[in-house]
Amino acid sequence: MPPKEHKQPAGRSRLGTEITQDTDIYTSDKYSDYSATIASSDGLDADNSDDEAEETMGRPGRFDITAPQELLDEIDAANSSEREAAAERASAASQKQRQQHARRELPASGSYAETVRKAQLDREEAELLAKLHKQSADRAEAQAGARQGSGKRKWDDQTPVHPSASAAAAAAATPRRRNRWDETPADVHVTAAVEDTPRRARSRWDETPVGVHAAAAAVDATPRRAASRWDETPAHGSAAMAMAAAMATPGAGARAAPAAMAARNQPLSDDDLDALLPAAGFAVVPAPDAYVPLRTPARRQQLQQQQQQQPALFHMADGAHAPRHALVASAEDALGGGPGALPPMGPDDVQYFGRLLDGGDDADGDAEAAAERQVLRLLLRIKNGAAPQRKAAMRQLGERARTLGAAAVFGQTLPLLMAPTLEPQQRHVLVKVLDRALLRLGDLARPHVHRILVVVEPMLADVADRFAQAEARQVISNLSKAAGLPAMLAALRPDVDHADAFVRRTTAHALAVVGAALGVPQLLPFVRALCGSRKAAMARQTGALVVQQTAVLLRSGVLPHLAGLAGGVAPLLEDAAPAVRTAAALALAALAQSAAPYGVEAFAPALPPLWAGVRAHSGRALAAFLAAAGHVAALMEAEHAAEAVRRLLPVVLREFHSPDEHMRGVVLAVARRCVARGPAALPRATLLQDVLPALFTCFWTRRAALRPRTAAHVVGATEDLALRAGAGAVVARLVPLLKDEAADLRAMAARATAGVLRAAGAGDVDGRLEELLVDGLLYAFQEQADAAHAPVLLDAFGAAVDALGTRATPYLQQVASALLWRLNNPSPLVRQHAADLAGRLAPAMHACGQDELLARVSVVLFEYLGEEYPDVLGSILAALGAVVSVIGVQQMQPPAGDLLPRLAPILKNRHEKVQEACLDVVGRIADRAPAHVPPREWMRCCFALLDLLRAPRKAIRRAAVSTFGYIARAIGPQDVLATLLSNLRVQERQNRVCTTVAIAIVAESCAPFTVLPALMNEYRVPELNVQNGVVKSLAFLFEYIGPVARDYVYAVTPLLEDALTDRDLVHRQQAAAVIRHLALAVAGLGNEEPLLHLLNFLWPNIFETSPHSICAVLEAIESCRVCLGPARIMMYALQGLFHPARKVRDVYWRIYNMMFVGAQPALVAYYPRIEDEPLHTYRRYDLEYML
Question: Membrane-spanning regions, if any (predicted)?
Answer without folding.
Answer: none
